[in-house]
Each structure stands twice: as structure tokens, then as C-alpha cells.
What does this fold into?
Amino acid sequence: THTHTHYLRPSRLCSLSPIEIQMRSGGEQTALEGTPVIKEMIARAKGRLSVMPGGGITERNVQRVLQETGAQELHCSARSTRDSKMVFRNAAVHMGASLYASEYAVKVSSEARVAALLARART
It folds into this structure.
């Protein structure tokens, strides 16, 4: 069985002014996996604070997260990778293990991904 000891009651959170938004993954690795708990938290909050799903939200699952939780807003990084502006590059030396992203790449929020997420969320 799953116990919900990973979150405070909305009444307790509301007493911790100035908390207005609580970002949650529902105690799971991603918000999609935590949708049952997020839905329950939104119901318990009764509009006193916003419970914002966050964690692993993509263009592929944004609709489902919103539909299954009833959330009105969410958090996502909308990350993509772009080439860094580093000028000097030493091909003989690698920073970190080969399992990690290249040190010549930078993770950034992508305007195109934000637009795609918004379009999917609104349909």
C-alpha cells in the first residue's frame, strides 16, 4: 500500500504564510506517476492554495497530467540541449565520464518546447 506521508495537509500549508503554490510530483519520480496523489492534494486544498504538478512533464504527457489531476497550472523545464559558446575545445581531454552530456553542450529552456507544451495543454 502507498502511504501519503510525503506531503503536508493543505490547511497546514496555508498556515505557513505566504505559501500560495505547492509544486509536487505526488511523491513519485514524475508528476504523471503521481497523478492520483496530486489529484487528492488539489481536492484537499479546496482552492486555498495551488497544487502545481511538476517533474517529467513533456509534450507527450501534459494533457494527461492536467486531465487526471484537474490542475490549472503546472511546472516544466521544457529543456533542450544546444551547443555551448565555448571557443577553445580540447578533443583530447573529456570532462567527466562518457555517460554524461558533452561539456560543449548546454541545457536551456526551449521556446519551441514551451509553445508545443502550451498547444498540447490547450487541446
